[in-house]
C-alpha cells in the first residue's frame, strides 16, 4: 500500500522512490482519481487557447519557438483577429480564454491591456500565458480584470533550469510565480517530464514546489524532442511517467485545476483520456485560427491541426463524456474547500 500522507507531505525520499519504480503506479492512479472526484468533482473545465504569436525572444533549449529557430514561419495575430476569435469562443459557450504566445515584446503593456479590457466584456475568465514580464505589468493587467496567469516552472532543479534556460534562473522564475500569486492571480505552474538529465529526485522537487506555491493550476506534459532545437537527439518523456506525475500532483495539491495536456495527447492517441482518469480535470481545446495554427510548433507531432479550426471544441467535449465525466459550464475557478473535511488517508476512504 502506498503511504498517502507521505505524498501529501511531499516527503522527498518517498516521492523519489515512487518515481523510480512502476510497482505502485496502478495504486497511485486510483488514489489520484479518487482525490479528483472528492475534491473537484466530476466536472472537467474547458479552456480555449489562442496561440496569438510564435515570436519569442527567449532561448529555451527544448522549445521550437526559441529565438534561434530559423525553420519556423513566424506570425503575429492582430488585435482585431484575436478579438474576433475571442468573440467566437464566447459564442461557443466556453467561459475561459487563454491567451498564449512566445515572449513577444511587440505586445506592449498597452496592447495586452486593450485585449484584456475588450475580452472581459464577453463575460469570460482570462488566462494570460505570455511568459515573464515586468511586475508592474502583472499588476496593471490584474487590475484590468485578468484572472489567471499560466507560466510553468518547467523544472524545479536549479541546475537543470539554468542549463535549459540560458540567461534565466529558477530563482527568478520562482520570484515571478510568487509575485503573480501575491497579486491575486490564479497562478499556474507545472513542468515537463523526461527532460535530458532529469532524475526522479528532480521530479520530486517539482511536486514540492507545486505545493510550496500552492499552485492553482498545474500543467504537466512529456518533454518531446524538437528537431529544430539543440535537444533534437535526446530522448523524450514517457506516457507512464507523465501520468504518474499528473497523479502525484493531484494528490499533493488536491483542489488544483490540472489539465490533461496537449503534449500528453501528442505522445499517445488516448493520452488525454488517460490523464483525465489519473487526476486531471481540465482540457484546453485549441482555438488558434488557421493558417497560423500549425506554426505554433513547440514540438513535433502536436495534435489538433484540423482543417476546421473549431473542431477541437466538439472533440474535447466528446472526450470528457467518453470517460464518464461532465463538461463544466462555469468559469472553472479553483474550488475553495476546507481540505480537513476531505482528508483521504487510504484507498477507498
Ligand atoms: N511563453 C510562454 C508559453 C510557453 S509555450 C511561457 O513562457 O509561459 C508553453 C509550454 O510548452 C512551455 O511552458 C513548455 O513547458 C512547453 N514546451 C515547450 N517546448 C516543448 C517540448 N519540446 N516538449 C514538450 N513541451 C514543450
Automatic annotation (TrEMBL):
Cofactor requirement: [4Fe-4S] cluster; [2Fe-2S] cluster
SMART domains, per the entry: BATS, Elp3
Binding site for [4Fe-4S] cluster: 56, 60, 63
Protein residues bound to (3R)-3-methyl-D-ornithine: 129
Keywords: 4Fe-4S, Iron, Iron-sulfur, Metal-binding, S-adenosyl-L-methionine
Segments passing through the bilayer: none
Occurrences of domain Radical SAM core (ranges): 42-261
Entry note: cofactor: Binds 1 [4Fe-4S] cluster. The cluster is coordinated with 3 cysteines and an exchangeable S-adenosyl-L-methionine.
SUPFAM superfamilies according to UniProt: Radical SAM enzymes
GO biological process: sulfur compound biosynthetic process; water-soluble vitamin biosynthetic process
Annotated Pfam families: Radical_SAM (PF04055)
Binding of S-adenosyl-L-methionine, residues: 154, 173
InterPro entries: Aldolase_TIM (IPR013785), BATS_dom (IPR010722), Elp3/MiaA/NifB-like_rSAM (IPR006638), FeFe-hyd_HydE_rSAM (IPR024021), HydE/PylB-like (IPR034422), rSAM (IPR007197), rSAM_sf (IPR058240)
CDD domains: Radical_SAM
GO molecular function, one term: 4 iron, 4 sulfur cluster binding
Protein name, per record: Radical SAM domain protein
Lineage: Bacteria, Thermotogati, Thermotogota, Thermotogae, Thermotogales
Amino acid at each position: 500500500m502506498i503511504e498517502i500522507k507521505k505524498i501529501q507531505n511531499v516527503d522527498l525520499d518517498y516521492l523519489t522512490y515512487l518515481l523510480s519504480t512502476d510497482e505502485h503506479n496502478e495504486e497511485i492512479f486510483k488514489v489520484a482519481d479518487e482525490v479528483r472526484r472528492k475534491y473537484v468533482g466530476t466536472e472537467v473545465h474547458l479552456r480555449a487557447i489562442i496561440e496569438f504569436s510564435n515570436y519569442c525572444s527567449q532561448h529555451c533549449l527544448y522549445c521550437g519557438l526559441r529565438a534561434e529557430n530559423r525553420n519556423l514561419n513566424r506570425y503575429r495575430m492582430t488585435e482585431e483577429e484575436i478579438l474576433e476569435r475571442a468573440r467566437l469562443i464566447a459564442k461557443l459557450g466556453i467561459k475561459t480564454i487563454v491567451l498564449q504566445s512566445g515572449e513577444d515584446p511587440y505586445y506592449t503593456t498597452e496592447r495586452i491591456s486593450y485585449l484584456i479590457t475588450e475580452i472581459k466584456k464577453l463575460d469570460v475568465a482570462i488566462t494570460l500565458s505570455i511568459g515573464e514580464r515586468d511586475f508592474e505589468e502583472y499588476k496593471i493587467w490584474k487590475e484590468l480584470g485578468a484572472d489567471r496567469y499560466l507560466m510553468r516552472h518547467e523544472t524545479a532543479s536549479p541546475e537543470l533550469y539554468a542549463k535549459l534556460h540560458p540567461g534565466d534562473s529558477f530563482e527568478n522564475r520562482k520570484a515571478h510565480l510568487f509575485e503573480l500569486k501575491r497579486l491575486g492571480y490564479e497562478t499556474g505552474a507545472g513542468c515537463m517530464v523526461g527532460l535530458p538529465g532529469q532524475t526522479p529526485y528532480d521530479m520530486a522537487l517539482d511536486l514540492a514546489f507545486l505545493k510550496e506555491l500552492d499552485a492553482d493550476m498545474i500543467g504537466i506534459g512529456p518533454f518531446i524532442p524538437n528537431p529544430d532545437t539543440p535537444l533534437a537527439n535526446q530522448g523524450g518523456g514517457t506516457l507512464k511517467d507523465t501520468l504518474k506525475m499528473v497523479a502525484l500532483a493531484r494528490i499533493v495539491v488536491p483542489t488544483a485545476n490540472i489539465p490533461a495536456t496537449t503534449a500528453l495527447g501528442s505522445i499517445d492517441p488516448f493520452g488525454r483520456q488517460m490523464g483525465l482518469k489519473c487526476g486531471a480535470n481540465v482540457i484546453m481545446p485549441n482555438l488558434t485560427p488557421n493558417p497560423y495554427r500549425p506554426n505554433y510548433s513547440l514540438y513535433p507531432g502536436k495534435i489538433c491541426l484540423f482543417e476546421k479550426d473549431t473542431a477541437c471544441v466538439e472533440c474535447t467535449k466528446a472526450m470528457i463524456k467518453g470517460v464518464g465525466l461532465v463538461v463544466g459550464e462555469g468559469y472553472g475557478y479553483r474550488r475553495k474547500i476546507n481540505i480537513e473535511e476531505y482528508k483521504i488517508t487510504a484507498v477507498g476512504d
